[in-house]
Amino acid sequence: MNVSIILIILLFGALATYFAGDKLAKTVALVISLASFVASVAILNQHNAGISSDFIYKWISNPNIYLASKVDGLAIAMMLLTTALTTIIVWSSFANQFKNAKGFYALVLFMSFAMVGTFVSADAFLYYIFWELALIPIYFIALVWGNGDVEERKRAIVKFFIYTLAGSLFMLTAFIYLFSKAGSLLIDELYLLRLTEQEQFWIFGAFFLAYAIKIPIFPFHTWQANTYQLSPSVGTMLLSGIMLKMGLYSVIRWQLPLAPLAAKTYMNIFLVLSIIGVVYGSIVALKQHNLKKLLAYSSLAHVGLIAAGAYTLSLDGLRGAVLQMIAHGFVVVGLFFAAEIIERRLNTQEIAQMGGIRILDTKFASMFMIVMVASVGLPGTFNFIGEFSLLYSLYNVDIWYAVIGGTTIILGAVYMLKMFQNVMLGEANAKPFAAITLQESLVFVIIIAVLLFFGLYPKPINDLITPALQEIVAKINRV
Amino acid sequence: MEKNIALVLVLAPFFGFLFNVFFGKKAGKTLVGLVGTASVLVSFLSTLFFFSALNANPSQPVVVDLFQWISLEKFNVNFSFLLDQLSVLWLLFVTGIGTLIHLYSISYMHDDENMNKFFAYLNLFVFFMIMLVMGSNLVILFIGWEGVGLCSYLLIGFWYKNQDYNDAAKKAFIMNRIGDLGLLVGLFIVAYVFGSLDYKVISEGAYNTQLVSNNSGLIALAALCLFIGATGKSAQIPLYTWLPDAMAGPTPVSALIHAATMVTAGIFMVTRMHFLFDLAPQILDLIAIVGAATAVLAASIGLVQNDIKKVLAYSTVSQLGLMFLALGLGAYEIAVFHVITHAFFKACLFLGSGSVIHALHGEQDMRNMGGLRKVMPITFWTMMISTLAISGIFPLSGFWSKDEILLTAFHSNIPLWIVGSIASIMTAFYMFRLMYLTFFGEFRGTEEQKHHLHESPALITFPLIVLAILAAVGGLISLPGNSWLNHYLAPLFRKAHEAHHLDATAYALMAVATVGALIGIGIAYSKYIKKQEVPVQDAEMKGFASVLYHKYYVDEAYDVVVVTPLKKLSHFFRNYFEVAFSETVFAFGKIANAIGTQGKVLQNGSVGFYLLAFVIGMASILVYLFLV
Amino acid sequence: MENILQAIGIENYIFLSVMLFCIGAFGVLYRRNAIIMFMSIEIMLNAVNLLLVAFSTLHQDAEGQVFVFFSMAVAAAEVAVGLAILVSIFRNTGSIDIDNLKNLKG
């Protein structure tokens, strides 16, 4: 069995969902995403047993392009993250009534397909196709099923679409150049290239534009807040939970090993940008009136720290980055889900119109609370492990990076607690708040279980990703 | 066997927490209280087991290694526990006093609709506190450290309908987090220098002169960062302002978390890492100065507070300052000694004040109390013993511990001794002011309250009596000349600290301290008993008293220096930076748009024009091909 | 065959087809009636056909004439499509003046 099975499940699953009709669409989508998750677990088992799940087929003979996939522990981790989160996200939307549901869920699965494809591709051409393919479904999801004023939404979503697309074009240019040098786009052959520092600089820069917009790194983040706010929650979860991890993953998989000299030379610039993002995102989050926008800025701060860890080029940094990517994926889905639950009941995203929810629904309050403290990196939760490794790797570069990046633990507490206080605490609101349903609370329970389990016992993930990351560090450090 | 008991020790309160969260509502209040209390009692009994084991075999601390937790390139952090003299001692009073306070809460919180939540949080707190104390490395300590902060947040904001309480809770959490960042950076430095975060490895490294001399700057920095962490948790200058606000929580919380246990975490950590601090004498000096300054500053604010719990809160800050003074002087055992005696008498005082508040149905302003001595004799007498203890009256526990601190200060630095002594005199004054205003004179509350005055039930008075006895005799564990505590803690320290001998200086200082305390009591007596003064209303306060009453306007200053600028910055970023970045991106779109607008003139829709352009184009290509 | 070329030199054929082509081109550019433009295009096409035939004769190579057949067939198809379009334009707008067709204006 190789990883193509997951891609096939998701692609045909998307079609099946579309043809299942509006009524059955969400059930079919859930079954398909669950099947893809099970298949990912099977791939994981196969990997642990030492059997390779790679595949390679000739696709186009001139230019020399392959359908190739190489799955190491890192790719498997990301694949598991994607399929698990897709399942959770699909399930979390069960209470929503979408117009044309079959189209909606088909697009969700199609997006999952493209994202898994991005994580497992071992040929730059294929990778690029998947990378861009992932943009199309989210464009429609956000545009057609989004909320808020249509004109405003169009403006924000089109901006997001063109912005990311434009960034990716630079990456394409870099790949074309690399192809002209290597005669192939297989990642292993690209790794073998010996580029001059000048060449590496341009390639690194081209990659950086694509990834910095996707992640996003300050100051390329301006699409984020509005897109998150105006997308339907499912779209926001897909974007923040998985899609921005594509950028971070690509930094680790493509950018750093292909241009290690440039990475080392200009490390400080990228560290500074990432860390500015941490502080800036936190400070802007302090004064947000819209719950989803606030969470968007908190996401900016968190991924800034992850990117900073990756750019330290150390094993600790990379490992922390990957751990935090996974942890952040779950936590941010949990947070946006909480926002969605509130929106379902109160029909608003404005924090000022909330308050006193804890009195009306203590169960929801407790679960929201746990996810929130996980997001501020309380020890014992998964996020702490990542944050600890990241900050430690930053410390090893320079103590000030750790101190300034570490302000996230203070500022994160400030805006999160403030948000929680205004949304959940205080006197009861006049508006009714229906108690959280069993299905909604089960979604939370799964997310919380993941966060707490890996917070105490991250070893399985650690053992999975470490060999792959060691290889990447070795490639970065080759002279 | 030992591993299992250690697990029981840690997990019992956690199971109490789980029970109260999931079954608390159904189980009923009696069962909630019972399970909550019993789970802590189980921990206490397990601690007794380790205590006796350690006494039998002092050189063999128990290490329980569970599993590998965080892996880093150079070292791993394991989930493991260490039960040596220090942690067992701490566990004894954490779980012991914890049990008493849980018992007390059964009655105190009985009428609260969320009693199960309260016990759940309290159990969770004990669990995290045990983690903090029992961890065998700094990261486990950090779990507990942040965990108790979370519980403190939850309990301060326990009455979450009141946004003022929520503000206080938030403030406590955030100020703690400022310290936590310091602690975290300290951890990183320690890890970098010693290649591990395990206490054992660090202590071995700290005695490696080669390693130490190569990294002396970093070690001092590490000590400074760890101390910043301690200032947050243990409410020292400049991060002390959260503690008085934390009194918004229910009184048992103030007794357990904000007096007896959590706030001593900083002292625990410094004592734990003493080998590191010993290498950084300049940081030790700083600790001593900060401690002394906090002691006198907080005591001075305590002089004029009218809220009974606020007085006790400032007293706690001040006493913690004295403990840091002792730490700064390198007298770790003495600091530990004062932690223990303080835990006894301060817990008793808080619980006593809770008993008073309970009797008055939530009244906390001492201006509306008075004359409670006859109605509440048990509360009065237990609080009186504790007040005498905290004031340092012979032969109660506070006398011995405070005297040791002042004696040490006298031997090393006279100005610090003077500051410490002033703080103790103030302590005696404000504590007796509290007692006189609350228990003596005539009752000043409403008729309604007077009608309902009563002594609290046995569940409340029993812990008070136990704690009062401990506050009275607690000094026995470390009498000068023959200190059991020093002897017990000796295996921790490489160089043994001998208890002070009872020489002439010691006696003279004892006399001075006692006279000082008596002076403080005397002033309080003449003001509040003889002249029957009652503190004036807030608006009438003037001069320095007003400055004191407003806590030197430190909160306001923080507001102006930190909070407001941060808000402004956030505003500025949101309204200008965000817009600027956004517009920059749109500018690219606009450039493309402008080119398009110009270009669309060519696309005028006239077929003839297109044909002309086509022919001209073809012709020019032909001309180019044939003629050029 | 050769005698035809001997009788009238190849230059004359070239000259004639250039003339025809230019007439066609100017017709396309000047006239606004779509049918006349269409006819002009046909003239241009036939000018090229003529040239192809002439050169085919000159080089004694039948390929050129084959091409002419091709282009005539294409022209016939084009006329069918083009006239159909014109008819539908006429039905919609009531005229076949191409100046009225400005829907593509940017």
TrEMBL record, chain A:
Annotated keywords: Membrane, Transmembrane, Transmembrane helix
Subcellular location field: Endomembrane system; Membrane
Superkingdom of origin organism: Bacteria
Major localization class: membrane
Keyword Protein transport: no
Topological category with respect to the lipid bilayer: Multi-pass membrane protein
Membrane in keyword set: yes
Pfam family for this entry, one: Proton_antipo_M
Transmembrane regions listed in the UniProt entry: 6-21, 28-45, 65-91, 103-122, 128-148, 160-180, 200-222, 234-254, 266-287, 294-313, 325-343, 364-386, 398-417, 438-457
Domain NADH:quinone oxidoreductase/Mrp antiporter transmembrane: residue ranges: 122-407
Family according to the record: Belongs to the complex I subunit 4 family.
Designated name of the protein: NADH-quinone oxidoreductase subunit M
Automatic annotation (TrEMBL), chain B:
Keywords: Membrane, Transmembrane, Transmembrane helix
Localization, UniProt: Endomembrane system; Membrane
Domain NADH:quinone oxidoreductase/Mrp antiporter transmembrane as annotated: residue spans: 136-427
Annotated membrane topology: Multi-pass membrane protein
All copies of domain NADH-Ubiquinone oxidoreductase (complex I) chain 5 N-terminal, residue ranges: 69-119
TM ranges: 6-24, 31-54, 88-106, 118-134, 140-160, 181-197, 217-243, 255-277, 283-304, 311-329, 335-357, 378-396, 416-437, 458-479, 504-525, 607-627
Coiled-coil annotated residue ranges, if any: none
Pfam family, one: Proton_antipo_N
InterPro entries hit by this protein: NADHpl_OxRdtase_5_subgr, ND/Mrp_TM, NU5C-like, Proton_antipo_N
Keyword check for Transmembrane: yes
Protein name from the UniProt record: NADH-quinone oxidoreductase subunit L
Organism field: Flavobacterium luminosum
UniProtKB/TrEMBL annotation, chain C:
Gene3D superfamilies noted in UniProt: 1.10.287.3510
Purpose of the protein: NDH-1 shuttles electrons from NADH, via FMN and iron-sulfur (Fe-S) centers, to quinones in the respiratory chain. The immediate electron acceptor for the enzyme in this species is believed to be a menaquinone. Couples the redox reaction to proton translocation (for every two electrons transferred, four hydrogen ions are translocated across the cytoplasmic membrane), and thus conserves the redox energy in a proton gradient.
Cellular compartments annotated: Cell membrane; Membrane
UniProt main location, coarse: membrane
One Pfam family, short name: Oxidored_q2
Family matches, as InterPro entries: NADH_UbQ_OxRdtase_chain4L/K, NUOK/Mnh_C1-like
TM annotation in the entry: 12-30, 35-55, 67-90
Catalytic activities: a quinone + NADH + 5 H(+)(in) = a quinol + NAD(+) + 4 H(+)(out)
Name assigned to this protein: NADH-quinone oxidoreductase subunit K
Subunit details: NDH-1 is composed of 14 different subunits. Subunits NuoA, H, J, K, L, M, N constitute the membrane sector of the complex.
Family under the similarity heading: Belongs to the complex I subunit 4L family.
MF terms (GO), sorted A to Z: oxidoreductase activity
